[in-house]
Every structure is written in C-alpha cells, then in structure tokens.
Design a protein that fits this description.
By secondary structure, this protein is α/β, with parallel strands linked by helices. It is 40% helix and 15% strand. It has eight helices and eight strands, in the order βαβαβαβαβαβαβαβα. It has a four-stranded parallel sheet with strand order 2-1-3-4, with helices on both faces. It has a four-stranded parallel sheet with strand order 6-5-7-8, sandwiched between helices.
C-alpha cells in the first residue's frame, strides 16, 4: 500500500515532520511518500493562504498519479483543498481535522482542539461543527504563528502547553487534539505529560487511510464528489482543465 502525504504549504521541513509521524504509525506493508507543494504560501494561516495553496496541492496529486498511490493525506489541519481533491482523485483523500476529530470522538465525550492563531481557530471551529462534533468539542488558539513551531527558541511549546492546561482546567476536556500539522511531533510527549489522549491528525489520517484501502473503499463519485466536468480553464489555470475520462 502506498500513501501519499501532501503538504499544501511550501515549507519542506514541515513535510518531513509529517512524513516522520506517518512512518511511525504506518503498518509494515505501507509505503509513505511525502510531497511538498511547489507553489503557494510557506504556511497556511486562514482563508486567503488556504485558497492560494490549493493549486499547488492539486498539482502534486495530479503529477504523482503516474507513479501511483492508494490514498492521500493532506497535511494541513485546515483540511485545505479537501473537497476539490476528493472530486479530482479516484482514491481516498483524508484531511487532518476530519480524521483527528473523528478519532477523538472514539476516545472522549468532550475534547479540545488546540491550534495556532485566532484566524485559524475560527476556520477550524467551523470545520468541527461541519463534521458533527460541535457539541462535543471546543477549539482554542494558542497565539503561535505556524512557522514558530519550527523554531525551538520561539517559546511556542510553552504557549501550546499553557493552552492545553487551560483546556483541561476550563473546558472539561477529556482528550486534546493538536490542531496543526506542525505539532505532529509533540503528541506522544504531551500525552505522557498530561495523562489524557492527545490526537495527532497525521497519525489519525494515515491509519484511517490504511483502513479504507484495506476495506476496498474510496470516495463516492456519485453526487457532490463526482469528477469535474470537462471544460476549458483559462490563463494560468489552463493546466487544471479537466479532461474527459474514457472507459
């Protein structure tokens, strides 16, 4: 089984961090392939960044089809481009937020997602509600720019831990979800410190991707995720024009 991990931002060190987390939980017969978007923002913090990251994400999914992959994981907790990717691809596509909150729901009645900035908190709160977990989950921002998670001297880990402690004390949280792909390497350490389940979206998405592939299941192509209709795309988007599928 081959699972493609696509980082929709352009920071390669974050891709490697996600790939390491994926390989740590993947089954022995699963190959993890990591890809970094080659166009777009260096980090994704809010709607504007997310919108401009989607073309790079789709390009990676498209260009790697010839080598083949059985499922793909979009390594951003905003589930950037997830709907478009599911419409494009014929294999299961998983997002970190959806995978993580579903997993947390198996483990706890109440949980808190701790993310980076306030603008991301609002976006993720909307996703959590869309995924049916709005009554069980709270989303908190720890006031950490994403790229500070790459800098050990930034103080980001201290801010993250402080917000987790507030979630446990004030929210009645029985589990914590790490709301950024840049936090993926911290899950085991934080779980040991706080004694509650700490869910990393990368690990959750990889295991769910393996399950879907093993079950022979993929995204429905009837209705909302049907393949795009063939039509011309103009200008810089011309390379994204859908083509008629034969057979």
């Amino acid at each position: 089984m081959r699972i493609l991990i696509v980082n929709p931002n352009t920071t390669a060190s974050m891709t490697e961090k996600a790939a390491t987390a994926a390989r740590a939980v993947a089954a022995s017969g699963t190959e993890i392939i990591a890809a970094t978007s080659r166009m777009g923002p260096v980090s994704i913090e809010g709607h504007y960044d997310g919108a401009l990251a989607i073309p790079g994400l789709l390009s990676e999914l498209k260009e790697r089809q010839s080598a083949g992959y059985d499922a793909a994981v979009i390594a951003c907790f905003d589930d950037t481009g997830l709907e478009a990717a599911r419409s494009f691809a014929d294999v299961p596509i998983l997002g970190l937020c959806e995978s993580a909150v579903v997993t947390a729901g198996f483990l706890a009645q109440r949980f808190t997602v701790v993310t980076t900035l306030e603008r991301s908190r609002v976006l993720i709160d909307n996703l959590v509600r869309r995924y049916g977990m709005g009554e069980r989950a709270k989303v908190r921002a720890s006031d950490i720019p994403v790229l500070e998670l790459e800098d050990a001297a930034s103080g980001a880990i201290g801010k993250l831990r402080a917000e987790i402690e507030r979630a446990l004390a004030e929210d009645g949280a029985e589990a914590i979800v790490l709301g950024c792909a840049g936090m993926t390497d911290l899950a085991r350490e934080l779980q040991a410190i706080y004694g509650v389940p700490v869910v990393d979206g990368v690990a959750a998405a990889v295991k769910q991707a393996e399950a879907l592939v093993s079950l022979g299941l993929s995204t429905s192509k009837h209705g909302s995720y049907a393949s795009p209709l063939p039509k011309p795309f103009i200008g810089a988007m011309s390379g994204f024009s859908p083509v008629l599928k034969v057979g």
